[in-house]
Every structure is written in C-alpha cells, then in structure tokens.
Write a structure and sequence with these properties.
The complex is a heterotrimer of chains A (333), B (322) and C (367).
Chain A lengths: L25 H19 L6 H26 L7 H17 L4 H24 L5 H20 L23 H19 L1 H11 L1 H6 L4 H24 L13 H11 L11 H20 L7 H28 L1
Chain B lengths: L14 H19 L6 H26 L7 H18 L4 H25 L4 H20 L12 H5 L1 E2 L2 E2 H19 L1 H11 L1 H6 L4 H27 L10 H11 L11 H21 L3 H27 L3
Antiparallel strand pairs in B: 1-2
Helix pairs in contact in B: 1-12, 1-13, 2-7, 2-8, 2-10, 2-11, 2-12, 3-4, 3-5, 3-10, 4-5, 4-10, 7-8, 11-12, 12-13
Chain C lengths: L1 H13 L1 H4 L45 E6 L6 H17 L2 E5 L7 H14 L3 E4 L8 H9 L3 E5 L10 E4 L3 H16 L4 E6 L5 H17 L4 E7 L4 H15 L5 E4 L4 H11 L7 E5 L2 H9 L5 E4 L2 H16 L9 E3 L5 E5 L3 E3 L4 E3 L10
Parallel strand pairs in C: 1-2, 1-3, 3-4, 4-5, 5-13, 6-7, 6-8, 8-9, 9-10
Antiparallel strand pairs in C: 10-14, 11-12, 12-13
Helix pairs in contact in C: 3-11, 4-5, 6-7, 8-9
The chains are: A mainly alpha (333), B mainly alpha (322), C alpha/beta (367).
Chain lengths: 333, 322, 367
C-alpha cells in the first residue's frame, strides 16, 4: 500500500548451483504444504484422501480460487477490491432471478458475467481516472451493493430454479465442472500474465508506476483493463457459487472478501504490488480449503478450529517471508 | 500503489473543509427532516454509541499515515473483551486488575503485529490479515463459546453511566482525541509518522527510528482496541467471542473518509474526528428521518466515494497537477 | 529470530491434538429440563410474572399505534416470514402500523443502535428478536423507561428487560421433537452429527443442550459424533456437511441442521453425495426451502414452528398489552386466528408445540 520501499523484482535470481530457482518459489512451497497436509492427515484418517473428499475440497471451494485469480491481478497492479464478496452475492441473485423469470439458461449465466465486467470496469475507471484509491472505491461499493441487495430482495430466497441451471453440479467425464473452471482459468491466466504485453504491464504498473510510465505503459489504461479482467473472474466465481446448490440465498456471503484476499496474499501476491502469480493464489485457495477440512478430520476441538487456521495462515506467510529473505541475501552475494 | 499525491500544504481547499461543509449541510438537512435529531440528549447518546469505533480510529490514523494498515483491530477488540471475562470470572482476578490485564492483552496482540511487521518485514496488510483470523480464533477457543455475565454495578458506569451529564466514555474519547491530536501535530513523533509515510527509506536515512515508531503505533492500536473492548463490555454487560466482528471496515471507512491517504503521508486527527462523527450522525439522522438500515448503508457508501471525489476534483482544479 | 518464531509457531501447531477436548457439542452451560420420553406433561412449575413494566402506563387503549420490529438481522427468509405475519396481524387489527428494520448481519452492536434510534424517534412499541439476551437488556430497559412497550419473539432477552416474550416452542420441546424424529429414522443406536450456525448463537446452543439431555435420558444408545459451525452461509453449510459425510462414511446415520440455512444445505450435501436413504437429515427449516428434498424422499421430517404465525402472534400480544387486555398475572391471551395462547414461565406466551412438516402436509405451506 506504500510507495514500495524494497520491491522484490519479479526478475529471476541467478543461483549458485543448478538447483532450479523454482525450488524457492512460493508455488512450490504451497504445493509441498498441500502434499504434506494430505500425507500427514491421510495417515491419521485415510478417508481424508479418499477420492470423494478430494473432489469435495476442490469442488466446494473452486469459486474462491477463481475469484482469487482476478483479485491477485488487482493486487499485483497495486490495488485492492474489498467489494468482491458483496458483488458475488449480488450477481448470484441476478443469475437466479433471471433463471426463475424464464430467461434462457445460457443467458442467465452470461448476463451476470457481463454485468460484473461492466461494474468492475467502472470501478477501475474511478481508480485510474478519478484517482480515488481502490480501497475507498471498493469500501464504498461494498456498502452500496450489500445494502442495495437487501433493499431489492428483502432477503427472499430463490428456489425452484429450472432444470439445467446448476452449472456447478454438472460432471463432464465424471469430473465436476468447477474443477475444470478452476484449472483451465488458472493456467490461461498464468500464461496470459507471462506472455502477453498487457499481462506483463500489470507487473510494471504495480512495481513501479513511474518507470512503467516512462517505458510507455499507460497506468490508467492498464488499471482499467485489470479491473475489467477481474470482473470476468468474479462473474465466473459468482456463477459457480450460484449454481452449486438448489437454493440461492440472495444475501452477501459473510466475510467472503477476506477469504479471497487471504488466498491471494498467502499465494505470494505482494500487497505492495508488482510480484506474485495466479498459480500461487489458486494453490493457496486449495491449501486453505484443505486445512479447513483436515482440522475436522483430525478431530481438533471445534472451538479451537479458527485459532489453528490462523496459526497455519501465519506459518505460511512467515515461510514466504523467510524464502524472500533468503532470496534477497542470495542476490546480495 | 505508488501514486503521486500532490502536497497538501499549498492547497487552500483541504479535505477537512469539504467534510466540515458536508457535516453542516447534513446537520441542517437532518434537523429539518427529523425533529428529534437536534437534541442534546440524542447527540450525547450518539457520542456514546460511536466511542468504540472512534477510539480505534485514532491509532488507525497514525498507522495509515505511515502507509500501513491494521485489519486485526476487531479481533483484538474481541480478544480483550473475552480475556476481561476470563480473568475476572474464571481466574478470580479482581475486576479492576482484570480490566488492566485485558488492556495488556490488547497491547501485547498489537505488539506481536508490530514485531513481525518490523523484524520480519511482513507487509502490515498480510500480517494483520493473518492475526485477524488468529486473534478471533483465540477468543473463540479460550472462551469455549461461553459468555461471561453478571458484572458488578460500578463497572457499568464506564459504558452506561454519566459523569457531569455526559456519557462516561465520551470523556475518555475527548481526552484521547486531544492526546492523539497533540502527538500528531505538535511532536517530533508525529512528524516522523508523516516522514515514514512519504518515503520510508528516506526516513531511515534521516535517522528516524522507523522500526521503533512502528512497533509503538501497532502496540497502541492493540491498546486502544482493548480499551474500546472493555468499554463495550461495560456498555452491553456481557462478553462474547464474536464481539467486534467487522469493526475494521467501520474504522477504516471513518479514517479514509477523514481524508487520510491510504498511500501514506497525508492525514489529520481532525479529519478522522470529522469522519466518524459524520458517519454516526448520518446513520442516526437517516434512521430518525425514516430511512431503513439497508438503505442507510447505501448512502454511507456513496458519501464515502463522493467526498474523496469532490476533494480530488477541487484540488485538481486548484493545484493544477493530477 | 525468524527461525525461532517459526519453530514456536510449528510447536503450536503440533500442540493441536492437546486442544482436542471432551466438549464437542456447541451447547451452552445452563441447566437443562428434558421432557419425559413418552411425551407426558411434566410438572409445570408455576412462576410469578417476571417481566418488566414501562415507566408510564399506556394511554393508547384502542387507538392507532406505531410499532417497530427489530429482528436479529434482515435479509434472511426466516425473518422475512415473521415480518409477513406481523403485516397480516396489523391488517386484521386495522389500528396498528408495524415496520421492520434491523442490521444486515446478526451483530449485537448494530442491533442496539437500531433500537436506540427508534427510542429517540418515538414509537409506541418495540418488537425484537435478540442476538444476545444480556447485551440487548440495557437498551430495552431504556425503552421501558421512556414508556415504550417491549415484546420479544423468537430469541429472548433477560425477562425484566421486556414485558412479554412470544415463545415459538419451548427449548425442551424442540429438543425432544428433533431427537425423536431422528431416532425414528436411524434407530435407537444410530449415530449423528450436527451443523449449526455458531457456538455463540443462544437459541441454537440451548436447543443442542436440550437435545443432549433428552437423548441421554430417552435414547441413551444413540451416538453423538460432533458439531460443526457454518455461520448462516449456504455454501459453507454445504461444505461442512459434505466434510462430515466424507469423514464418517458409513458410520454417519444422520445429520441435524440447526438453522433454516444449515438444514437445506445439509440435505443438498446428502443428495449430491448420493446418500439419500442412507443418511437422514432432520432439522429446523422453512418448508419452501425443503420441498424439493421432501419430494425426493431424501428428507422425511422438518421441525419448525410457523414463523408467519410467530410474527402474527407478537403483534397481537403487543396490541393486547397496549389495550390492557394482557396484564401481569394473566394466564392466557387472545391472538386472532391462532385462538387462545397460554402464558408459561411467568412472562412467556407459548405459540404451541413445534410442528413437524412431512411429505403429506408440506405443500400446504408457503413461506
């Protein structure tokens, strides 16, 4: 959130030996943490690693991972979006309302995504051109969306959704749809961030806006683009959220924005902007979900569940800091 | 988020002025639309209701001026409240000592944030996001989801009583505002906060003890959250582990509405005071006018965005640089 | 430094099993009062009226009154239904204006602020459903002190902070209905788990405590597996129920849903796991949300009172209080289409026994 005092450059660090530099990436740390968790908890209670439970962990939390992809891009560009949970609640309600009203199902899937893009693009424009800090804009919209949703619906649930609406319940080739979305979108976003000019400019704007400007990158246009893309991912996340169950609650899911932001930052996205990857945020979303599930499997007292989750988040964050410090030291040599 | 914020000093239109005008306009409109709004009793009562958010908003202003943030305030608030009950009820500590210990717990929680932020260079947002979960979890685990009730009568003076006709906690708030205002605007410490927020590296080179200052302000945030927690327990006469949930967003909204820049280096206590007062009076006035709660938060969100927008617009015109 | 801290944190993680404790239940620590197993009425201890009284006696007898209803939170189906019932009663009576306003999250601080604002605004009566019985008491007493009538419903406050409380069903009645319904489906030695909102929600904690007491007395061989929290969040409830199903596999015979959010989500989890008929779902829920699962035979019985009736009764009780027709010491009150409701526990008005919705009757209800 500051003028970056010591921005860790995304540039690869030459290591002394051939040990691949990926050895120190946050992605690998997270991946190993996930594997370790499955091995340890699986040894205590084999049912944890049964195919059924693995599927549930991915399936039930894919919408968080998808939303965290967009959030990561926003944070990498040096911004933040606190309104994301409220937006997902609103979009899910819109989608359900359209479906119940008899709009063709395909439209009730697409319209919320388009609305989402339109909404976040507006937000991005306010951040870029009107120069309102993103935390203020999104804090304001959080209230507006949350209050507006209750004014509009009065809290009535949406049920009796038409057949064929439940996208997230479909299982092409036996694998639940949300898992396809999570995997394909993560890979696509990671490649795009790495290979496209716009993708790389996001890092440049977040890392050093002045330098980015000098090298001919428009900060304003990049920020608007980032928010527009973020809107796409939020839209998809809302869709997965809305179509998972037979009922849509038409309220704002409590604390969802914190869960999504936590996934992004635990995934190694620096809040200072400029560094991080979307692969890390997806892995982090999976790790956080797996932690939540595993604590039930190993019989942690439910009263201490959140404390243990907090400690584990802290451990992950500290492991990341440790890795960065080592990297910084390595570079110093 | 490196942005070029125009230096405020040479500008005649300050954000505080915009807010002050907004406050007067709202007061004028609301006192017409709701006849019971403009009474001493109602206004003092609003002061009582906003004290907790206000107390936490003061150190948050310091922290945001240094370009940091503290998201764990609501959880420190809840943890202190729980510990007050645990010390007094479960461990048999006399209530005054339990109150002091609850403040110690809050301060320690803030100190832990500060320690990892300064020693390990964990970005404040990440650190406090992690402890937001951790401290709330501790509160839940320690309390075992049990409430502690049955405090003695004298304890309620703090949260429900009055001194010289003014709610007790309002006196505490006024003293706190004066102290924070003096520290920020009249001391080297205060100037150091701005220096850190403008350019931390430069501040380090100019012999400002950046780490020590950060450690102090994060501990202070824990202390004030603890104090607000104790006052809240006295106001509602019970402790619960979910107290203070979502407090961080209310506090940050008040501070940024008050014109403190999230990029650091800009902000005043006067702005923050105007910020939380405006929010509280809007909520109250709109309710008395007959606007419902869900519509009220829509209005507050709009005011938040508009106020920053108007300031930006005016400064852009006057200052010439965007 | 960093390594020490990390080690300390890791040590904390390994201390986790030490945190695994005996209490699993999400119950509160107050005394329980289980009903007799065969449902025979127990000794009804007669209690003196223990409610509070407004400072000034009402002078609005038979006149138009304005009421405000402050539920735990707005924007959920359950309180939308109580609001509907209140509007029905107001329309029938013709001399009552009632509107609902409240926090968007079940937050004690916000709820207090709402009530405080309405005291300032000046209403004739306040209807409330408390997020916390103790925390809400000071502001309700303030209302009584200003001569405003106060009647609670759904979730009580301390008795002396309000005049009357409309009790949808006694806690021990809910406990018995839930356990009996479950026992019927999974047998006398079945095992079950619970999905609740949070451990600090007073009503849910009370019901769980009463369920425990009744189960220990009347179905001692049933096995209590564990209780998980799921806020009031549909998707989280679904995930938690799914985790329970995956964890216990064939050892899990039934799931209790303790909220109108948790029950349909648990039913959905059982449906999606293909475990209908193997894992029973019993719980508190509104009929509309449960119709698909009852129709597919995945859920056999849903326990609830009618929240529309609850809101309806609350307005009738308030009108009777203002009109002087319900005074301390009275034993019953007339409540429109609901007939005569009886007074229990000193200052509570009982709506009735909990209602069991089944395939045969669920389509008769629409809320």
């Amino acid at each position: 959130m500051a003028a970056p005092e010591a921005t860790t450059a995304p540039a690869p660090t030459p290591r002394r030996r051939w040990v691949p530099r990926i050895a120190l990436s946050q992605e690998l740390v997270l991946f190993l943490a996930i594997v370790a968790l499955f091995v340890v908890v699986g040894a205590i209670n084999p049912r944890f690693v049964a195919e059924r439970n693995l599927q549930s962990i991915f399936l039930g939390n894919a919408y968080i991972a998808v939303a965290a992809i967009g959030m990561s891009m926003v944070i990498i560009s040096g911004n933040i979006d606190i309104s994301v949970g409220s937006l997902i609640g609103v979009l899910a309600t819109v989608s359900g309302t359209l479906a119940v009203a008899g709009v063709p199902i395909i439209l009730s899937w697409i319209i919320p995504v388009l609305l989402s893009i339109a909404f976040t693009t507006t937000m991005g424009a306010m951040v870029a051109y009107l120069r309102i800090p993103s935390i203020v804009v999104s804090l304001g919209f959080l209230s507006i969306l949350k209050g507006g949703l209750i004014v509009a619906t009065g809290g009535a649930w949406i049920n009796a959704l038409p057949d064929g609406f439940q996208l997230a319940q479909m299982k092409p080739l036996g694998i639940p749809m949300p898992i396809y979305f999570m995997v394909i979108l993560t890979i696509a976003a990671a490649l795009w961030m790495r290979l496209s000019a716009t993708g790389r400019s996001i890092y440049a704007v977040g890392g050093n806006a002045e330098a980015a400007r000098l090298s001919g990158i428009s900060r304003e246009r990049t920020v608007v683009k980032v928010f527009a893309i973020h809107g796409f991912f939020v839209g998809i996340a809302a869709l997965l959220y809305a179509t998972q169950l037979a009922i849509i609650q038409s309220t704002v899911p409590p604390n969802l924005e914190l869960t999504i932001i936590t996934a992004s930052v635990v995934g190694g996205v620096s809040i200072l902007g400029g560094t991080g990857t979307v692969v890390g945020s997806t892995l982090a979303a999976v790790l956080l979900a797996a932690i939540g599930s595993s604590l039930i499997f190993i019989n942690v007292s439910p009263y201490w569940l959140r404390a243990v989750q907090g400690v584990l988040i802290l451990v992950t964050v500290l492991a990341d800091m440790w890795r960065r410090m080592r990297q910084a030291r390595g570079r110093g040599r | 988020m490196s942005d070029t914020t125009a230096p405020r000093m040479r500008l005649t239109v300050t954000h505080e002025l915009v807010l002050l005008i907004a406050l007067f306009v709202s007061l004028a409109v609301l006192s017409v639309t709701a006849e019971r709004f403009m009474s001493v009793g109602n206004l003092l009562n609003q002061g009582r209701l906003m004290t907790e958010v206000a107390l936490v908003a003061l150190p948050m202003t310091f922290i945001i001026i240094t370009a940091g943030i503290d998201l764990s305030v609501g959880s420190m608030f809840g943890l202190s409240a729980i510990m007050l009950g645990v010390f007094w009820h479960n461990l048999g500590v006399p209530l005054p000592a339990a109150m002091a210990l609850a403040l110690v717990v809050g301060t320690a929680a803030g100190f832990f944030n500060g320690l990892l932020i300064t020693r390990l260079r964990v970005p404040p947002l990440i650190m406090t996001l992690a402890t937001l979960a951790l401290y709330r979890g501790l509160a839940e685990g320690i309390s075992q989801a049990r409430s502690v009730r049955g405090y003695p009568e004298w304890f309620f003076v703090l949260g429900q009583g009055e001194v010289l006709g003014v709610p007790t906690q309002l006196w505490i708030l006024v003293v706190a505002i004066i102290i924070f205002w003096i520290v920020l605007s009249r001391t080297t410490f205060g100037r150091s906060l701005y220096a850190i927020g403008h350019n931390e590296t430069a501040a380090r080179y100019s012999a400002i003890k950046v780490d020590r200052i950060k450690l102090i302000i994060y501990s202070l945030s824990g202390f004030m959250s603890g104090l607000a927690g104790v006052i809240f327990v006295s106001r509602v006469s019970t402790t619960r582990s979910d107290m203070g949930t979502g407090l961080e967003l209310d506090v940050i909204a008040a501070v940024v509405l008050g014109g403190t820049s999230i990029f650091g280096g800009v902000g005043t206590i006067a702005g923050t005071v105007l910020g939380f007062t405006l929010i509280q009076l809007l909520k109250n006035g709109l309710a008395l006018t007959g606007v419902k709660g869900d519509a009220t938060i829509v209005v507050i969100g709009t005011v938040l965005i508009l106020s920053i927008l108007i300031t930006n617009f005016l400064q852009h015109r006057r200052g010439g640089d965007g | 430094m960093l390594r020490t801290m990390t080690l300390a944190l890791l040590a904390g993680v390994f201390a986790v099993p030490a945190m695994a404790q005996d209490r699993w239940d999400g119950a509160d620590s107050l005394d329980t009062n289980p009903l007799a197993c065969d449902g025979s009425a127990g000794e009804m201890a007669m209690k003196e009226y223990d409610g509070g009284q407004p400072a000034a006696m009402s002078d609005k007898m038979g006149q138009e009154i304005t009421l405000i209803d402050v539920p735990k939170l707005v924007g959920i189906g359950y309180f939308a239904a109580t609001t509907k019932g209140q509007a029905e009663a107001a329309a029938e009576l013709g001399n009552v204006n009632v509107s609902t306003d409240g926090p968007t999250e079940a937050n004690i601080d916000d709820q207090i602020t709402f009530i405080d604002n309405y005291i300032t605004q000046g209403v004739d009566g306040i209807l409330f459903a408390a997020n916390d019985p103790v925390a809400i008491a000071p502001v309700l007493k303030k209302a009584l002190g200003e001569g405003i009538h106060v009647v609670g419903y759904d979730a009580n406050s301390e008795p002396d902070a309000r005049e009357w409380f409309v009790n949808q069903a006694e806690f021990n009645g809910i406990g018995k209905a839930m356990i009996d319904a479950m026992a019927e489906e999974i047998g006398a030695d079945g095992s079950f788990a619970i999905v609740t909102s949070t451990f600090t929600t007073p009503n849910q904690a009370r019901w769980i405590a009463e369920m425990q007491a009744y189960q220990a007395a009347c179905h001692p061989n049933m096995k209590w597996l564990e209780t998980v929290e799921a806020q009031e969040d549909n998707n989280l409830s679904f995930n938690q129920a799914t985790t329970l199903i995956n964890k216990y596999g064939d050892d899990l015979d039934g799931i209790f849903g303790m909220t109108s959010v948790a029950t349909p989500a648990s039913a959905e989890a059982v449906t999606q796991a293909g475990a209908c008929g193997e894992i029973a779902v019993v719980g508190l829920a509104t009929p509309n949300a449960m119709k698909p699962y009852v129709a597919s035979d995945c859920v056999k019985s849903v326990v609830l009172w009618n929240p529309v009736d609850l809101g309806y009764a609350a307005v009738y009780v308030m009108r009777a209080v203002v009109d002087g027709k319900l005074k301390p010491g009275d034993k019953s009150v007339e409540a429109g289409k609901l007939g005569t409701l009886s007074v229990v526990n000193g200052s509570e008005i009982l709506l009735g026994a909990p209602f069991i919705f089944t395939k045969d009757n669920i389509n008769d209800f629409d809320f």
